[in-house]
């Protein structure tokens, strides 16, 4: 019947960063357990499994295919010519912000050598 938008609210199970952030400092195990029960991703997986539309085997296949797709995309991106910083800055801003103008000039000087 046409496009569908699904809005979900999920829970970040891991830390904010891998640099020593410890989630147990700001949330309890009870909160994590509560979210595990209502996590839309987990619930949707269970729904698909119950309908016979998803399985661990299917998931492993999808993950392997995704890894290969990512590997190929990275290889392709690595072959693309490197963009100049000044080109990037020029397409980002119609008028260069004053606080970046000095950096822009520094990069322009380096790139001209």
Automatic annotation (TrEMBL):
> Which reaction is catalysed here?
N(6)-[(R)-lipoyl]-L-lysyl-[protein] + 3-methyl-2-oxobutanoate + H(+) = N(6)-[(R)-S(8)-2-methylpropanoyldihydrolipoyl]-L-lysyl-[protein] + CO2
BP terms from Gene Ontology: branched-chain amino acid catabolic process
An example Gene Ontology molecular-function term: branched-chain 2-oxo acid dehydrogenase activity
Q: Which residues form a coiled coil?
A: 56-83
Q: Which InterPro entries match?
A: Alpha-ketoacid_DH_E1_comp, DH_E1, THDP-binding
Q: What is this protein called?
A: 2-oxoisovalerate dehydrogenase subunit alpha
EC numbers: 1.2.4.4
| Pfam families recorded | E1_dh
Gene3D superfamilies attached to this UniProt entry? 3.40.50.970
| This protein's record includes keyword Coiled coil | yes
Top-level enzyme category: oxidoreductase
- The gene name reads pdhA
Cofactor(s) annotated in UniProt: thiamine diphosphate
- Domain called Dehydrogenase E1 component: residue spans: 1-85
Q: Which family does it belong to?
A: Belongs to the BCKDHA family.
UniProt keyword terms in alphabetical order: Coiled coil, Oxidoreductase, Pyruvate, Thiamine pyrophosphate
Q: Any idea what job this protein has?
A: The branched-chain alpha-keto dehydrogenase complex catalyzes the overall conversion of alpha-keto acids to acyl-CoA and CO(2). It contains multiple copies of three enzymatic components: branched-chain alpha-keto acid decarboxylase (E1), lipoamide acyltransferase (E2) and lipoamide dehydrogenase (E3).
